Amino acid sequence: MDILNPSTYWVGKRCYRVLTHHVEASHINYAEEDEYYDEATADSEACEEEASEASEFPIDRLQSGLYRTAWHVPSAFYAYLIGRKGDTRRRLEAETQSNISIPQRGAGATEDIVVTGQSVAKVRAGRLKVALLVEQARQKCSPTHFVSIPATAPNIQERFLQFQREVLEVCGGSLGVQEALFQKSAKLHLTVGVMALMDDSERRHAVQAFTRAVQESARDLPDGVLKLRLKGLHYFTDDPHSVRVLYAGLRACEPSDDFPRPHLPQQLQNLVDNIANLMIKDGVMRKNAGSVTLHMTVMNVSFLDRDEGEAPSQQPGVPHQARTEGFDASHILEKFGDYDFGDLEIKEVHLSLLHSEDPETGYYVTSARLPLAGLQLP
Fold first, then answer.
1. For the K Homology domain, which residue ranges apply (predicted)?
2. Do residue 73 and residue 199 come from a single domain?
3. pLDDT tens digit string along 23-74?
4. What is the rounded distance in angstroms from the CA atom of residue 162 to the CA atom of residue 167?
């Protein structure tokens, strides 16, 4: 990254720097990494699967008789593909008997990686090898964006703040329990999935994939809205005395005049799974093991590191080491295990920038947002 002219993202009068990723050293640094990831290195099988899924691509025949394919790869991955003194590129070329042309850093977003060879098979092999290395590098990058469902209705924020006050009053003496562990009430949300978007081209593609996924998934919602209750506390580890993430679960609401037939959590599960699967298929979202875990995080040890406006304690090229110690949630679970955070009406889905804050709403900076109503496709 050019430290004198970094990429920026303006929201109102605030300017956020888009961090460059050191793909060989960086670690997962999402504030809720416990919920989805436990990987300091890439899962090679998953990377191979993602690379092979993109195996259908155009290959042109040149007048010289050679074959050629070209595609965009973010410049953040160039060094990873070239290797020390060009060793990695030469190895790939030798293994696939193809020629791999990688643009110079700073050449511009319009420059593509080009693979040429004497046969379609050699060109295909060269491109797939490059795609596999890119996916391996991407899995090591800190996520930059995520898809979420806001849970910031006034009734939920009020109940959450009351929960925070009572926990600190009743359980403040428990090991590790402190105010900094709590989520900000204006940022309460359900997470659908995360992604590492490395440049403007990938960000535009992600917005398009997000729009298609939500439109396709919303077809099964007859009213364009789901209403569920956020109630009960849960955690991801086996030991309640050492918890990193404490979250609220989802239950069906009681019948009401507005919703005489209560919605079920499975309806939301189907919605978010469909959105995630479609975005994974489009190559923009990271794969999860199984279905999306539906929850609203209320306490997280990663929040101890947060620094408004950018990734916690992270500078370009310097890996962030996630905290490993947990806090004792046993007393909280005993006293507040069935806590009711209120009813949540789910009306829209957001694609947002991680480690950011909208100065007007206090929520994450939004790249795209779509209401669930009125999006049904014919």
1. 65-135
2. no
3. 433 333 334 544 444 333 345 455 555 544 545 789 999 999 999 999 999 9
4. 9
Same domain, 121 and 218: no
Residue 285: phi and psi, rounded to 5, are -115, 145
Each residue of 320-368: pLDDT tens digit? 455 668 999 999 999 999 999 999 999 999 999 999 999 999 999 999 9
What DSSP letter does each residue of 248-310 carry, written as one string?
EEEEEPPP-SS-SS---HHHHHHHHHHHHHHHHHTT-S---SSS----EEEEEGGGGG-BTTB
pTM across the whole model = 0.80
Place of tokens 């797939």: 128
Q: Where does a domain end: 95, 117, 140? A: 140
Domain that holds residue 50: 39-140
- Is 350 in the same domain as 330? yes
Cα dihedral angle (56, 61, 65, 70), rounded to 10 degrees?
Answer: -70
Q: Are residues 220 and 353 in the same domain?
A: yes
